[in-house]
Amino acid sequence: MSAIQYDSPNFFSEKECSTRMMYINRNPDVFRDIVKHMQGYYVAAKDEVHLENLMMDAFFYKLSRLAETLRQTMFVNVSGTVFKIARETILNDSPNFFALMEPFSDRNLTPTFFCRSPELFKDILGHLQGYEIHVRDRIHRNNLLKEARYFKLNNLIQKLSLGTDYIFSGFPTRPEERIKPEVTMLLKNIRAKHVLVKEWREFIKEPTTTRHSGSSIPLFGGGEDTHSKGSNHSKDINVGDDSNNVAATNKEKILQHNRSLIQSTELQDLLYKPTADIELLALVVELSSIELFAIWPGSVNSSMLGDQHLFVYRDQDLACLNKICKHLGLQTLTMAANVVQLSPNINFHLDGQSYKGQEELEPIIRKLAVSLAKVTPPGRALRLFLGRALVRMGCKSGQLVMTIVKAEGWSSDKEYNACRRYLTDDMKDFDAL
């Protein structure tokens, strides 16, 4: 009788039975675990099927204590590999895939089988447990990003998109910025809505539904007087038309401030701020599979562009860059070839040789340009193929400014072919065929 009263009120304590024999059409194996629970023993699920059956019978017999105990853990079957995970762990980094399924957890109907990679899920689980993930290479990072997007883990997506660490530059070109935090990102991973200009200010939220004409450029960031303006504005909410006038005036001031930033003749850094708890970071973009037309002072036909150089990149990269330009109100890039600058402290790995700074790079560029002129028609600049390049992003006079800080590439097919890698160095594999 004491066992029946355990975890009451329940199915048995509510029954007024006139007989000692009761017929219940349920699974007898699961009922053995139900009896153990009612005798005070701890009952744990063996796998996802056992957990589902126990949960169903816990609700059938109205055993709320057992249901709550079972709800603390869940099983996830990833392509045949079963993970037993605490529910509080799996719901970290919310809202995520599992948190979206939480309303159905009363019956544990959350899908527990996923046709995904078990090895990658171990990394996902480590993230949910609060550990740092060791990213082995670029392929591993891309695969982790796919899994993070599948399970809707926004914090992990941001970490993988931003790279392994933030970089604190202690040797800036401008001495007034002794230490400047920056981040390197692949261009395809950049979200335009997180890009802003230094000292960029956002519009004051209007309390009314009145719409004002003007530019619809989305603005992000916060100026030092934003909160004070917001507080003054909130005091005047009930004034009527005056509040609308104040809002329109503040909005126009902020818009003019942002326009003056992007139209300034001084170089303005583009910053990246994906979430509220991450500080503003100077943006460095990694581009791959691009061409550089180098036109150096004193090289062949240098009068064409002076000391400027041209980037030629893929259409999808051009589309990503134009999203940033449109978002900030900068002039869009109408061609796949656009002017790019070279940092005075550039590190250029060209034809297998590393050159540090323009003083080392300029002589080899001039030499290659002169030798190229002997075999190419007049008017051609030195054409370099870049496997990848790191580019610091900024804006000046309403235009996007790109400055190469590091690159690796080749000056000809001959040099590129010398760097080709064999699929295997073990020729015995071919002899065995």
From TrEMBL:
Residues 75-157 form the Potassium channel tetramerisation-type BTB domain. Residues 224-238 have a biased composition (Basic and acidic residues). CDD domains: BTB_POZ_KCTD-like. Residues 209-241 are annotated as: Disordered. InterPro entries: SKP1/BTB/POZ_sf (IPR011333), T1-type_BTB (IPR003131). SUPFAM superfamilies: POZ domain. GO terms for biological process: protein homooligomerization. This is Potassium channel tetramerisation-type BTB domain-containing protein.
